[in-house]
Structure formats: structure tokens, C-alpha cells
Design a protein that fits this description.
Helices cover about 30% and strands about 20% of the residues. By secondary structure, it is of the alpha/beta class. The protein has 2 domains: about 140 residues, Rossmann fold; about 200 residues, Dihydrodipicolinate Reductase, domain 2. An 8-stranded mixed sheet has the order 13-12-11-7-10-9-8-14. Nicotinamide-adenine-dinucleotide binds next to loops.
């Protein structure tokens, strides 16, 4: 029976707890830790957690418990320090997205895992979704032909109060705005499905949140050899219509699911009805997808439990988490410095280092409030992508 600890017992921790509770034959949650006085202890009233113990300092938890795996569900600026502490204590780690605000911190986390022979996984729960897995299978099949264009909409809506939570809305503690904290899901999916671009350009703004330093909207263009991908990262989008639309030479496919396969007449204009054979072949491949046993966080937690037991690489490891941070960093560099940024970002790039973003990013507005907690439930985005 694997012994699990949860570090950070705020909003997303409930999703981790629920995830582990889906695997009662494999693991038990034995420890909870949160720096906010009494917050972890309050959870011990939950019927499923009555035999766990609560801590307010990670050092105390790591010293007192014999843990196999911890989930780290704290603000982004704390991820590196807490992850490295757990790895050095001989504990495997599942850390929430974003992995850390800088590549320097990501590399320190990856090195700590390697040096201590530990497993490090970074949350990317949308890879564990039937619709995303289906889209990836179709793209991998090559049936749509060479990709020419992708439109990726990380479109969310958040009101002003969202940035009043103490750690949100500053480059220092949130690490960035919606590009880092919301679009990281779709940037990870883009890398997973289309691979890494060779260059990035972008524009950042804060269009509607006058109580926050960070961007609430960015538009980036990712350049592949011939293809382009547009990525919109937004928390000003009424209706939260998130989508990935991929155009290939022979067909377009997307999430939400839609297939169109055009063909041209002798004058190059599209023929009515397109290429029904191609469209049918794509639909048949999509229909053959076997539903995942668990989607979202429970899907990833199930994989990480297997990795811990079998001492194998998890589906999403530290290198995957780092790749998404590299792309976010490139989008920030392009927007802040007003230039096209080549990938990979070298380790001597100033933005590789922790602190450069904090020093150089524009403060769109000053943060005006810092409340310890916000009332009300958190909602999930369209098609179960949550933040
Ligand atoms: N995967 C997703 O879809 C998803 C959704 C929501 C949030 N998140 C991520 O989860 C993380 C937490 O977000 P949240 O919404 O739960 O925030 P939250 O503020 O609701 O909870 C964070 C908790 O961490 C505690 N904490 C802070 N520093 C700590 C430390 N050093 N040691 C122990 N506890 C500490 C805080 O007191 C708080 O209770 C963020 O990285 C966020 O981006 C991911």
C-alpha cells in the first residue's frame, strides 16, 4: 500500500484527494500539509481522511512520515523548493502545473529527481482525456496529411476578484498570468500533438484586470518548418470556448471533434461534399478509441501510482513539464522584448534564470488586494479542463 502525502490543501487539492481515493487497493492518504494554520487539520474531519495526520511545515511532515509519494498543490513559486525537499527526502513527487516559473528551477527539480533516484511527474491531466487522446491518435496517423495550421484557444473567463487571492496577479508569486497558469494546459497539448516549434512570437496585454500585474491575454504565433500555430491565452473570454483546430493538407480535425476533408475541382475551388472516403477513414479511427478507465487527474494519478510501484517513467515526467515552461518562457520573452524567439532557449539566456521575468516583465497594473482565501466553489472550464 503506497503512502501518500498532500502538500497544499487549497482549491485543487480536493481533486488530488479524490483521485487517490479512486485507487483504494493501491494507496492511502496518510498526511496533509498546509502552511495556512488549521487548513490541513480541517480536512481530517472528512470521513475518508480520519486516519491521516496534519502538518503546517513540510519539514515536519517529511521527518515524521514514511511517504512513498506526495502531491504538491501549492502556488507556482513554491513548487521547486517543495519538490526538491521531497525528492531529497526520498519521496516521489507529482507536482501541479505549472512546473515552476523558470527553466532554472525546472532543471533543479529534474536534477534532484535524478540524483535521488526518484520519480517526478508534472500535472498535465488533459492528456488523460478521451477527446484529446483521440485527436492525438488521429494526428499521429498522418491521415490529415502534413499540418499547415493550428488554432489553439485557451479561452477562459475570470472576474476581477480572481486576482485578489494573495498569490495570484504578481510575477513574483504566480510566476505569470494566463499564459503560464491557464494556457499551460493547451501549450502542453500542442507540444504533445504537434511537437516543438522552432520559433515563437507574441503580444501580451492586460485587457480587463486592473488589480493585477500580469497579462490576462496573449496571442502567440508558433513557427514550425512550414506550419504555423496560433495560440490565444485568455481569461477575458466570455463562454470559455477552448479548442484545438488542426488543418492538414488533406483534412481538418479538432477538439471539439469535427472533421472536414476538402478536395478541389479543376479550378482549385472546393468541390461540394469534399473527400468522403478520407473523412470516413478519420471518423472510423476516432470511433475505434477505447475509453480510458480514468480521465483527468484520476487518470494521471493512476499512471503515477503505477510508475511508483514499477519504478518506471510516468507518462508525463519532469522533461515534459519543462518543455511547456520553455514554450511559456519563449512567449513571454517575445512579448516583453518585442522579438521573435528561437527554440530551444539556451541556458545562458537571461530568461532561463529565476528572477529575470520578475525583473523585466511589465507591471500592467499594481496588485490592489491580497486576501487569504476566496469564498465559493471553483468551476471547471469547457470540456473538463480546469484551473
Ligand atoms: N491542474 C489543474 O487543472 C489546476 C487547477 C487549479 C489549480 N492548479 C494549480 O494548483 C496549484 C494550487 O492552486 P490552488 O487553486 O489550489 O491554490 P489555493 O490557494 O487554493 O491552494 C494552495 C494552498 O497551498 C498552501 N501553501 C502555500 N505555500 C505552501 C507551502 N510552502 N507549504 C504548504 N502549503 C502551502 C496555501 O496555504 C493554500 O492552502 C497552482 O500551481 C495552480 O496553478 C491546477
Amino acid at each position: 500500500m503506497l503512502k501518500i502525502g498532500i502538500i497544499g490543501t487549497g482549491g485543487i487539492a480536493a481533486t488530488h484527494i479524490d483521485g487517490y481515493l479512486r485507487f483504494p487497493q493501491e494507496c492511502e492518504i496518510v498526511a496533509l500539509c498546509d502552511v495556512a494554520p488549521g487548513r490541513a487539520a480541517a480536512l481530517l474531519a472528512e470521513p475518508s481522511l480520519t486516519s491521516a495526520r496534519a502538518y503546517e511545515r513540510i519539514e515536519d511532515m517529511l521527518a515524521a512520515e514514511d511517504l512513498d509519494l506526495v502531491s504538491i498543490a501549492t502556488p507556482p513559486s513554491t513548487h521547486a523548493e517543495l519538490t526538491i525537499a521531497a525528492l531529497r527526502a526520498g519521496v516521489d513527487v507529482l507536482v501541479e502545473k505549472p512546473m515552476a516559473p523558470s527553466l532554472e528551477e525546472c532543471d533543479a527539480m529534474i536534477a534532484a529527481a535524478a540524483e535521488n533516484g526518484r520519480i517526478l511527474s508534472v500535472v498535465a491531466q488533459n492528456r488523460f482525456r478521451d477527446d484529446m487522446a483521440t485527436l492525438k491518435t488521429v494526428l499521429d496517423s498522418g491521415l490529415i496529411g502534413p499540418v499547415s495550421h493550428a488554432q489553439v484557444s485557451s479561452a477562459w473567463w475570470r472576474g476581477t476578484a480572481y486576482y485578489d487571492l494573495w498569490w495570484r496577479g504578481t510575477w513574483e508569486s504566480e510566476g505569470g498570468g494566463c499564459t503560464l497558469n491557464h494556457a499551460i494546459h493547451h501549450l502542453d497539448l500542442t507540444l504533445w500533438m504537434l511537437g516543438a516549434p522552432r520559433a515563437v512570437t507574441s503580444v501580451l496585454t492586460n485587457a480587463a484586470h486592473e488589480n493585477s500585474e500580469v497579462e490576462d491575454l496573449s496571442v502567440a504565433v508558433l513557427q514550425y518548418d512550414r506550419a504555423l500555430a496560433e495560440v490565444t491565452s485568455s481569461v477575458v473570454h466570455h463562454g470559455e470556448e477552448q479548442a484545438i483546430v488542426v488543418q492538414g493538407r488533406h483534412a481538418r480535425v479538432s477538439q471539439p471533434w469535427k472533421v472536414v476533408a476538402d478536395t478541389a475541382g479543376p479550378n482549385g475551388f472546393p468541390l461540394p461534399g469534399g473527400d468522403p472516403g478520407r473523412a470516413a477513414e478519420i471518423e472510423a479511427l476516432a470511433a475505434a478509441h477505447s475509453p480510458l478507465e480514468h480521465e483527468g487527474h484520476p487518470g494521471q494519478i493512476g499512471d503515477v501510482l503505477g510508475a511508483v510501484r514499477e519504478r518506471r517513467r510516468p507518462v508525463v515526467d519532469g522533461a515534459d513539464g519543462r518543455r511547456a515552461i520553455e514554450l511559456v518562457t519563449a512567449i513571454y520573452v517575445a512579448g516583453i522584448e518585442r522579438r521573435t524567439v528561437d527554440l530551444p532557449l539556451p541556458a545562458d539566456d537571461p530568461y532561463y534564470r529565476a528572477g529575470t521575468l520578475v525583473a523585466r516583465a511589465p507591471h500592467f497594473f499594481e496588485k490592489t488586494a491580497a486576501v487569504a482565501d476566496l469564498p465559493g466553489a471553483i468551476t471547471v472550464g469547457s470540456s473538463a479542463v480546469d484551473d
